[in-house]
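[job 0412] stage=complex_fold ligand=flavin mononucleotide status=START
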Amino acid sequence: MDVKTALAKRKSTRAFLNKEVPITTVNAILEQAKTAPSGVNTQPWKVAVLSGQSKKDLEQKMESEFRAGNKGTMDYQYYPEQWEAEYKQRRKACGLLMYSTLQIKREDKQRQLDQWAANYRAFDAPIMLLFFIDKIMEKGSYVDYGMFLQSIMLSAVEHGLATCPQAALAEYPEIVKKELGYEDQVLICGMALGYEDTTKDVNNYRTGREDLDKLVRYFS
Ligand SMILES: Cc1cc2nc3c(=O)[nH]c(=O)nc-3n(C[C@H](O)[C@H](O)[C@H](O)COP(=O)(O)O)c2cc1C
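[job 0412] stage=complex_fold status=DONE, emitting structure tokens
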């Protein structure tokens, strides 16, 4: 598969088939992704691959915490405290698109809650990936990490798999660390990995992107 096709096919996928992904395939994806560049080749990525009982145990704990109304605190701040109009409007459009596709009304708080809760189960994908970085690492390594994550997602597409990167999976770092260790690490985010269920509405919409003239200025 060429890069153009992989880029076009990748999308955040939020419903998966109940079909196992061989660990050899996960390894093949990670082997490809680890070729991502990083400043002075620091390779700051550390990955936990969860499936089977270990995934079940962790997701039950996170989902219960969420349903008990306990908001977690991420190890780092992902979003700004004050949102500017430009970003606020895109965030709103992103949510609206998903909820309107799923026909979840604004006042239907229970369905909204259930939809969000699915995050903590990695949307029932057979594999949950969790990404850590050493506490001593700085912003530059977070830049590197994004390349690693996108490489995983593109390689997954080539392997016939789908993904959803998930900050939600980093909302309860203390639960994750109690279960898996990684105490000296920052939990960056997680990712659902599996075979897409193409029959589900939640997978049948695409988010838009701004025109280049809004993002790029040419100087010559
Ligand atoms: C680092 C990162 C964290 C994300 N966290 C979540 C999440 O917790 N839950 C979720 O449903 N989507 C999450 N997303 C997916 C975004 O909503 C999605 O990438 C965006 O709306 C663009 O859609 P697309 O990925 O289908 O192109 C995340 C994306 C990234 C890159």
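The first strand starts at residue 46 and ends at 50.
[job 0412] exit 0
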